[in-house]
Write a structure and sequence with these properties.
Layout (H helix, E strand, L loop, with lengths): L2 H12 L11 H8 L7 H16 L10 H11 L10 H4 L8 H22 L6 E3 L5 H7 L6 E6 L4 H16 L4 E6 H4 L10 E6 L2 E7 L5 E2 L2 E2 L1 H10 L6 H30 L1
Parallel strand pairs: 1-3, 2-3
Antiparallel strand pairs: 2-4, 4-5, 6-7
Helix pairs in contact: 1-3, 4-6
Length: 272
């Protein structure tokens, strides 16, 4: 779909009444996250996505694109009209725009495209996006040219995969300069061994920098938590969060204290 088309649906869904909402079941939502269009998603996919966008951004206000209005206001900003700011609205009815105003319109179009791309990016970063395995190269390898990409290979019905995905969603919302995606392992890599799921691939600049299998490297005291996953990512150089730097410094200080105490205790015992 074009993004502008999705925005038009978005605007419609903001105004949709509670009675007109498309209600999906938990099973349908889970299946859709794994790339399966079932139930209401089969015929109403765009409406459901727009509805979810509207729910997530209840205060956003979208306006139809008006190139004439943008052209006039840009011309005013450049001092091109011999009127005061209060006269801008009167100029919106003019049809005899000069050729040099087309340049201003072109500039505004570029800005508009940049704004829409930025809005689109807010729905890519900050979440774990499920992608088909066929998009591996485009979304992971090539996508990592701009930022770190964390690809989580999962399997339906695998409890460890579900647990890790749940935590990764929290991590993604707190680290919006990193992109997180999930894929069905066997779709991304044919005949991928089930025993290695969940598998996490860390890409940067088109190259896989790290690979993990299972949960061991994401655990702390045998539990997978928000802190344990973020600390692991920090150890891999993916993120930098100051709170974990302080924790590491405190742990190092405590280790030094324990070592000095152990040395003194040993020294006392030797004297006796």
């Amino acid at each position: 779909w074009g993004f502008c088309t999705l925005l038009n649906h978005y605007r419609t869904m903001v105004e949709r009444t509670a009675e007109a909402r498309i209600r999906t079941t938990e099973w349908e939502d889970i299946q859709y996250k794994h790339g399966n269009r079932v139930g209401k998603y089969r015929d109403n996919e765009m409406d459901i996505i727009a509805q979810k966008l509207a729910d997530a951004n209840p205060n956003i206000q979208l306006r139809a694109y008006d190139p004439v209005e943008e052209k006039v206001k840009e011309k005013m900003a450049r001092g091109g009209y011999d009127v005061d700011a209060d006269g801008v609205d009167d100029l919106l009815d003019k049809d005899d725009m000069s050729d040099d105003e087309d340049d201003a319109l072109a500039v505004f179009r570029q800005r508009r495209i940049a704004e829409l791309q930025k809005l689109k990016d807010t729905h890519v970063f900050g979440v774990v996006t499920h992608i088909p395995g066929s998009d591996y190269i485009k979304e992971v390898t090539e996508g990592s040219a701009k930022s770190w990409v964390i690809a989580i290979l999962t399997m339906l019905g695998n409890e460890d995969s579900e647990n890790l995905i749940q935590i990764m969603r929290q991590v993604a919302s707190r680290n919006r300069d990193v992109r997180f995606v999930s894929m069905i392992a066997q779709e991304a890599i044919p005949k991928f061994p089930a025993k290695h799921v969940p598998c996490v691939l860390l890409y940067k600049e088109g190259v896989m920098q790290q690979q993990t299998t299972g949960l061991e490297q994401w655990q702390e005291r045998k539990e997978v938590t928000l802190a344990s996953v973020e600390k692991a990512l920090q150890g891999f150089g993916v993120i930098h969060r100051e709170e974990y730097v302080r924790d590491e410094e405190e742990n190092n200080d405590n280790d030094d204290i324990r070592m000095r105490m152990a040395y003194k205790t040993g020294d006392v015992l030797r004297k006796k």
